[in-house]
Amino acid sequence: MQGDLDAWLDAAAGTDEEFVDRIWRLVLRRPPEADGRERALAKLREGTLSRAGLLQELAGSDEFRGVVLLDAGLARAVGERAHEGRPRELQAPAESDERAIEIPWSLARYRGEQRVLDIGYAFAEPAYLAGLAALGAAELVGADLAEADVPGLRSVVADVRELPFPDGSFDLAFCISTLEHVGRDNEVYDVDAARDEGGDEAALRELHRVLAKDGRLLVSVPTGLQEDQGWQVVRTPEDWVAVFERAGFLVYEDELYARGDDGWRSASLDEARAARYGAGGPGAGAVLLAELHPESVGGKLRLAVRDVRHRDEIRRSTIV
Q: Of 27, 100, 284, 307, which is least surrounded by CB within 10 A?
């Protein structure tokens, strides 16, 4: 026997329209496009496609493989947070973009902070936003030049270079694949903001201001061969670190990843330096992820003690 009667009846319940809409959202995590919906409904009416057959088609698509990859990243982040893990040496297939690395790396490092800020949320990957909302922070604020409706997040329309928050307002800030766009040509995002080649550093200084003295900033940026693409800037790893430090931050931890023929892998400084944006797949050829702390004498001392006590644990990829 294949299955049981109740399960077969449940699978056949409801209209085809309801089933198509439900299965699309469940498998691909989005509503069906109009043409795809009509084709599926027509085949279901003709009897040339069954409900199980439609599920098989969707589950066998390249798009679903992308969903599985991002969902696995969210699950990894949850598991790591349970024991305060700091995952390194993550992996992802070459055809994916850097989100498959950024999402688990950054969300795993949440430590229960109650006042959380996300910069650039309006155009963020929905999987990342779902993971962000699932952190359970008492106050979750998103700041962007555009506005989007994200359950559990309070939206604030603002330029990251001039945030409408008092000093020390947040315990943790995320800035994932956003810093490289600040002060650049944002026409691709249909938003208007003042052009400024030093926009990334200005943004970091403002984030430094709104973070608590013991706050943290989790950031990711494309890295590799220096290139100003107009809509974003790609800097070498050393140049990004210099920008972080000029803005008053201490690099507590960082890691470099590069895309190769065998996929995304943790990279050496030389490998990341040589990466080119768009080479080998969509998005960055290499990415720098970092945890930054507001610089202080006490912070430097604690970091030095930590390095002595845990000298066998790799903490930095951007230093030789």
A: 307
Instruction: Return the residue matching tokens 């922070």.
Output: 137
Give yes or no: residues 18 and 94 share one domain: no
Rounded distance, CA 86 to CA 116, Å? 19
Distance CA 203, CA 7 (A): 54
Residue 119 token pair? 């910069």
Tell me: do 302 and 280 sit in the same domain: yes
- Whether residue 261 is contained in a domain is answered as yes
| Containing structural domain, residue 209 | 74-309
| pLDDT 10s digits, 87-137 | 999 999 999 999 999 999 999 999 999 999 999 999 999 999 999 999 999
Tell me the pTM: 0.93
